[in-house]
Amino acid sequence: MPAGFKYFPAFLDRQAQEALVDLLRQAMVEAPFFMPIMPRTGRPFSVRMTNLGPLGWVSDRAGYRYQATHPDTGKPWPPIPEEVMAVWRAVSDYPHPPEACLVNYYREGAKMGLHRDADEEDFAAPVVSISLGDTAIFRIGGPERGGKTETVKLASGDVCVLGGQARLCYHGIDRVLTGTSTLLKDGGRINLTLRRVRKPE
Ligand code: MD3
Ligand code: FE
């Protein structure tokens, strides 16, 4: 694994996971999942997305970017719940709060191709990921496309931190193992990624 990758299996117990799903359901009334599309091809992602926090990541014909409002409703994103901020404080080793919490929803068959997260200004801050629901096969490589990769299974309640060298490594989700968790009533997987977008003052 690249230096700076930290893995905390079962960081959240079942009760904490259920509480988080309840909070997300409430937030999703204000900020429903939208369908991001690839800038060049216009093809939809198989993952549905929404965001929490002052900034949210969006992708449409115009490109990838962070913005303060939901692309469909035009409303500001709901706040990041305190329980989620607490995870960041516990694992990030970074003194400033995250500005974006991207919520990725993987229904059956959804995946995410290998990519780097490079739309942020502040690469000194790590990305923190919280997995909920069905187990995913997460793939991580090096800083160059085409290098060696390895896989890690991410199960419900697992948290990982991608800092240091790992922050700019290629990564993706090969697939989600249907029926491996009972957390989400309709199955599938939700991943939260917490990010610092701007450099702190
Ligand atoms: C490794 N999400 O939203 S989270 C993404 O499970 C994304 O939904 C995946 O990749 C998911 O961009 C993986 C774990 C993760 C997040 C950010 C990273 C791994 C990372 C940044 C650099 C290296
Ligand atoms: Fe990513």
List keywords for this structure.
6-stranded antiparallel β-sheet, 201 residues
Structural summary, described in words:
This protein has one domain: Sandwich (Jelly Rolls), CATH 2.60.120.590. Helix content is 13%, strand content 32%. It has 201 residues and is of the alpha+beta class. The chain has helices at residues 14-30, 82-91, and strands at 5-8, 48-52, 56-60, 63-67, 100-106, 112-115, 127-133, 136-140, 150-154, 159-162, 171-176, 189-195. It has 2 helices and 12 strands, in the order βαβββαββββββββ. The longest helix has 17 residues, at 14-30. Bound molecules: N-(carboxycarbonyl)-S-(naphthalen-2-ylmethyl)-L-cysteine and fe (iii) ion. N-(carboxycarbonyl)-S-(naphthalen-2-ylmethyl)-L-cysteine (MD3) binds at residues 102, 104, 112, 117, 127, 129, 136, 138, 140, 160, 162, 166-167, 169, 171, 173, 191, 193. Fe (iii) ion is lined by residues 115, 117, 171.
Question: Which spans have pLDDT < 50 for at least 5 consecutive residues?
Answer: none
Distance between the termini: 32 Å
**Second rung of CATH, namely the architecture:** Sandwich
What amount of the residues lies in strands? 25-35%
- Structural class comes to alpha+beta
CATH class: Mainly Beta
Mean pLDDT: 97
Q: Report the oligomer.
A: single chain
Quantity of strands, as a count = 12
Bound small molecules, deduplicated: N-(carboxycarbonyl)-S-(naphthalen-2-ylmethyl)-L-cysteine, fe (iii) ion
Strand adjacency order, main sheet: 1-10-7-12-5-2
**H and E order:** EHEEEHEEEEEEEE
**How many domains?**
1
